[in-house]
Specification:
Organism: Kribbella capetownensis
Low-confidence stretches: none
Radius of gyration: 17 Å
Shape: globular
Family: Belongs to the 4-toluene sulfonate uptake permease (TSUP) (TC 2.A.102) family.
Number of strands: 0
Mean pLDDT: 83
Membrane topology: Multi-pass membrane protein
Subcellular location: Cell membrane
Pfam families: TauE
Length: about 260
């Protein structure tokens, strides 16, 4: 573990717990955790921070995925291709992460998030109930496509992955927000695993710190998943809009003022 002060460790653990809660409900926990790691570990390399962030996030997403799986019981025939291809896409994204300038992605992601926020805000009924837009084979192909594209994005860049997964499952496939959150968490486990494998092959992760933060992220994820299940789709929709708005502000700062 890197040489960090007790206060820095406490700061990172609190950030990991908060990120786990947000990530379990609507995704986007990296909005808190990744900047916190950049502040707390100024001497770490980008690969170390990204990979350690993935380890911590994996612990939380795995916990919330199990909770959602038990409480919501998502359709396995949809989740399996979504998760497997998301994991493969994430591994491919991690392979090219060091070769593609981050400056290319941020303006594109900003525009996409603004569109997501406007579309969701203008359609109050969006995600209130499940009304699938595809049948049979077309449905599974659509889920697979979502998995590959967003998985690749997660491996290469990362911020807002959970939110993009939920929006795609709600806006494109037609799930309600609660069902979408459950499926997104399972897919997010796969994307984290895919990226970690690639980063680990290059010796990047700070394993001890990642596992300590992961324990806090796990507790936050457990609490967040239980909160989402108890409060339902309307609550998840509100938190989704709050997190997407925060992501927009963060990316706008990076693009225009960073």
């Amino acid at each position: 573990m890197p040489d960090v002060s007790l206060w820095t460790l406490v700061f990172l653990v609190v950030a990991a717990f908060s990120a786990g809660w947000i990530d379990a409900v609507v995704g986007g926990g990296g909005l808190l955790q990744l900047p916190a790691m950049l502040l707390g570990l100024p001497n770490a390399s980008p690969a170390q921070i990204l990979s350690t962030n993935k380890i911590s996030s994996l612990c939380g997403t795995a916990t919330s995925a199990v909770t959602f799986g038990v409480k919501v019981r998502p359709d396995r025939r949809t989740v399996l291709p979504l998760a497997v291809l998301a994991g493969l896409g994430s591994a491919a994204g991690a392979l090219v992460a060091t070769k593609i300038p981050m400056s290319w992605f941020k303006p594109i992601v900003l525009v996409l998030l603004v569109g997501v926020a406007i579309y969701t805000a203008m359609k109050p009924s969006l995600g209130a109930r499940t009304a699938l837009r595809f049948d049979g084979r077309n449905h599974y192909l659509a889920a697979s496509g979502v998995g590959v594209l967003i998985g690749f994005y997660d491996g290469a860049v990362g911020p807002g992955t959970g939110s993009f997964l939920i929006f795609a499952l709600v806006g494109f496939l037609g799930y309600n927000f609660l069902q979408a959150s459950a499926k997104a968490k399972i897919a997010n486990v796969a994307t984290n695993l895919g990226a970690i494998v690639i980063f680990a092959l290059h010796g990047a992760p700070l394993w001890q710190l990642g596992l300590i933060m992961g324990a806090a992220n796990m507790l936050g994820g457990l609490l967040g998943a239980r909160t989402a299940v108890a409060r339902g789709s309307r609550f998840v929709r509100v938190i989704f809009l709050v997190v997407v708005s925060a992501l927009i502000l963060r990316l706008a700062y990076d693009v225009f003022l960073g």
